[in-house]
Amino acid sequence: MTGIVLKDMFARIAERGRALVEKRSLRLAAFAARAAATAPEAERIEDLCRALLSERGEASGVALAGKVLDRYAMMSGEQKKDFFHALAQDFGPDQLRLKQAWAAYEQTSDTEGLRGLIRAVEPPRQELFRRLNLAPGGTGALVALREDLIKLGDNDPALACVEDDLVHLFYSWFNRGFLVMQRITWSTPADILERIIRYEAVHTIKGWDDLRSRLQPPDRRCYAFFHPSLIDEPLIFVEVALTSGIPGSIQDILAEDRTTLLPEHATTAVFYSISNCQAGLKGVSFGNFLIKQVVQDISRDVPSLKNFVTLSPAPGFARWLKRVAADPKAAGLANVDASALAPLKEKDWHLDPALRSALRPIILNLAAFYYVHAKTSSGKPVDPVARFHLGNGARLERLNWLGDTSPKGLREAEGLMVNYLYDLRFIEENHEAFANSGTVVASDAIKTHLLALAPDLVISENRRV
């Protein structure tokens, strides 16, 4: 009810503000020349943005912000891209003011000079985004705007400043303190459940019956983060299975004929799918907070739980294996026989018992190397999921042979899945080791695979492939 009341309040403010804007429009020189034009396209969106930045009245400012966002929503992709370039070129810091503020600070180095310098450095774009955020639905519109920027910017360096300003503001607006965690159940409103189906990014939900099988049984849980300004839009959600042991296969987790486990008999909580929902919030991390809060809540609800693990995909593993097969030496694995990986080229190789038996030790040993030693140019693990969980303080626990035999699982990872263990006693220690030195904390089972791969090979912790 609170969200609905706030929406209604802002809508009333906006309507009153629109009336004020209309009364004042004749006094705005930028719009006076176009007074005879009745089409909304007659007003350039850049002029509306300048008017918004000069606006002093709160109500009229809210209305004008809504007008800018309405205009933006009607623009074509090419027009939006032109608008982004206008934001980059025309709404940056005033260079003369910046130089003067820097000169003043150099002379005094006092607090007042620093405040002046900070004000001069901040681009008008940031204040424009703040004022646009005041419009009803402004936060969601700005998230959608950044999604457009990501799609249309195409890594254009000229638009990096606009991207940086939005991300800077989003880090503040979507601070953990503003987020609310809710459990998603079969009784959750249908519009939110529809979004859960649509946003699932790891294991596709095949309709309402499939969704019910993930939410309704007593050994299944789903939790999501919401933001007060995006009432019905989940930001991120995690699906959890309660089990009696650490699973090695998503087929077992999602099996239609599986036996339901009573929560009090469960010893393990398995995070088997984590999906980010808003493309416009890319780079603004929520997952680490969500996992830690879910661990706290679910531990309280199910005291029998002892283990907290993931059953994670390996989205870059198949691509890395192809590079190894093409040139083992370049990957730092000169002792690996590339021909041993040739059966992976055969269609449905995973259905052949002989091929499965031959490939299993090879793939698992190479996977251990991939996770522990294959690094990017910046010294981080190649695998993006590994970067996330290891950065959160998890331990690389177990490699699961043919853990995901879906077309996607075979295409991206040759069926490999991974368990990361969240041991509450060592999360901070593991996080510090990874953050400070890039150390991948791994179980003895992982180290055994490494030893089997190359018992006489000295493997550098900083190898980059």
Give the distance, in angstroms, between the N- and C-terminal Cα atoms.
53 Å
> Rg from C-alpha positions?
27 Å
Q: Order of strands in the sheet with the most strands?
A: 1-2-3-4-5
The amount of helix comes to 40-55%
**Architecture of the largest domain in CATH?**
Up-down Bundle
| Helical run tally | 20
Which of globular, elongated, flat, extended, rod-shaped describes the shape? globular
Written account of the structure:
With 465 residues, the chain is of the alpha+beta class. It has three domains: 2-173, Malonyl-CoA decarboxylase, oligemerization domain (Butyryl-CoA Dehydrogenase, subunit A, domain 3, Up-down Bundle), CATH 1.20.140.90; 177-310, Aminopeptidase (3-Layer(aba) Sandwich); 313-453, 3-Layer(aba) Sandwich (Aminopeptidase), CATH 3.40.630.150. The chain is 51% helix and 10% strand. A five-stranded mixed sheet has the order 1-2-3-4-5, with helices on both faces. A three-stranded antiparallel sheet has the order 6-8-7. The longest helix is centred in the first third of the chain and has 23 residues, at 2-24. It starts with a helix and ends in a 12-residue tail after the last helix.
